[in-house]
Amino acid sequence: MATLGLVEYADASPEVRAVYDDIMTVRKTDWINNFWKALANDPVTLRRTWESIKQIMAPGALDPLTKELIYIAVSVTNGCNYCIASHTASAFGKGMTDAMFAELQSVVGMANETNRLVTGYQVEVDDAYKPPLKR
To answer: What digits encode the pLDDT tens for the residues 57-113?
Structure first.
């Protein structure tokens, strides 16, 4: 259970309901997930986080599926089960296949392993990898 509980739509203040309504409109859904309901205990954080997510996850130089894959990778690395579950569902909705998910997990696992090895061995960055990089 969430530390401060979950704020259901029926119990939400007008300020929180406005954010909930925007979430449902943008995501074309009729429900609010527990992450937003937990954040609604602090309406300022709720609004700020939603506005940031809305901006960052919008189409840009990276397509929406790529952004979801990155979100999954970071969530796996950080051990956030909720974010793994929600962004995996979102990625499947944006076209991720089972094979893509499996390959993503292989890349995440390898990156975490080699990151720890290079950290443990205190490997200096090669000059070829330092700015300015050749394009």
So the answer is: 999 999 999 999 999 999 999 999 999 999 999 999 999 999 999 999 999 999 999
pTM exceeds 0.85: yes
Do 40 and 76 touch, CB atoms closer than 8 A? Answer: no
Residue with the two structure tokens 């074309």: 28
**How far is the C-alpha of 34 from the C-alpha of 50, rounded, in Å?**
13
* List of residues 6+ apart from 40 with CB closer than 8 A: 6, 7, 12, 16, 19, 20, 46
CA angle 127, 130, 70 (to 5 degrees): 130
CA distance 87 to 56: 14
Q: What is the pLDDT of residue 118?
A: 98
Cis bond before residue 132 (omega within 30° of 0): yes
* Residue 80: φ, ψ to 5°: -95, 95
Side chain identity at residue 65, one-letter code: L
